[in-house]
Task: structure prediction
Amino acid sequence: MEERDDVLHMPHDQIEAMQLEGIKKTVVACYENVPFYKKSFDEAGFDPYSVSSLEDLSRAPFVCKQDLRDEYPFGMLAVPREDVREIHMSSGTTGVATVGAYTEHDLKFWAECFGRGIAYAGGGRSDVVQICYGYGLFTGGLGAHYGSLFSGATTIPISAGNTERQIRVLREMGSTILCCTPSYAMHIADTAIAMGLDPARDFHLRAGIHGAEAFSDNFRAELERKFDYKVLDVYGLTETMGPGVAVECMEQDGLHIAEDHFYCEIIDPATGEVLPDGEWGELVITTLDREASPVVRYRTRDITRIIPGECACGRTHRRIDRLHGRTDDMLIIRGVNVFPSQIEQVMETFDEVSSWYQIELTTKGHLDVVTLKAEVNPDFDFDSTGAIEQLQGRISAELKAALSVGVRVRLVEPMSIPRSEGKAKRVIDLRGENQ
Ligand SMILES: [Zn+2]
Result:
């Protein structure tokens, strides 16, 4: 199948008309088929048959991750179980997992949405797509897989892990597009360099489609320099489908939402009020044609904004900005709200440090203590007298000015912070534990 170009360039009023139809159908299907929604709509006084404009959706109550957990495993299904072709689950690290179910139709549009990402990267039949997202219940591996098949590319379902084999396959199969988390891509590059290879010269990558975790512009630039390819950000979550809800185009100026399948709102996370385009807040998603696991106003906890105006690429689907962390990543340190992304932004202003860092939270007496462990770049002279102390002091002063919170900075040698095959572990909260 080809990228449906007409849909991607449709005048926005036509997209909105299509979205209104999708919302009307979805709220009614949820109300009539999912007891959770019937109860929640009735309690909020929201009449699903009364929706006549996109703005009317803001009268509907939110649904959050805990609601989906409470209905585990099949309470949120809007179709008979027999119509479900595939099941995925979000990682249940903090308790019960949430279930995403897919009908034949749902799998088809998921493939199309991720396939758009590959098409945005200019990918197609002549490409070899190496997928090192984890396969299994996590949506990363199979989402990318279906997208790659849809795009007509040759697909290598290698899954995550065994980095030396990844490197061999990258070379021997001449992979042109790499799909994995950005931190794993960096780990592949660094491992290849440690093996004496030059990822820019010895590999044939043109593009990387990297998501499932937030990453900074500096981190992107470092990846692009190492592999000599273009990095496109991809967004999605199991609760709304999986990766492909929004994907960046080659302009690298925000991620185009698949607006024919999703309606996005940005809300103030504290008040729930819908914010105008351009303002940062929490992303809320309503599915427009998902059959098995539709969601109405799902609170993603992800912090972004709708980028006002049109993209230079000419596609008319609106864009979300690259994520600025999650509302639940928000750290409350000595009563001050701090996002890890704010710490990252400060670190980006220092050329001497790399993008690898970890934030450790401990307590001393009744006070929170924040320690930022960051790696210096390989060309930094670690042994020069006083250089480390001086740099630590400068970074610490900048952080204090930016966050209004004191941060201990401890610089470490390159490659000394543990790498992971999946999402990078940026925050280690040891508060409440015995030291
Ligand atoms: Zn674009």
Observations:
- The mean pLDDT is 92.
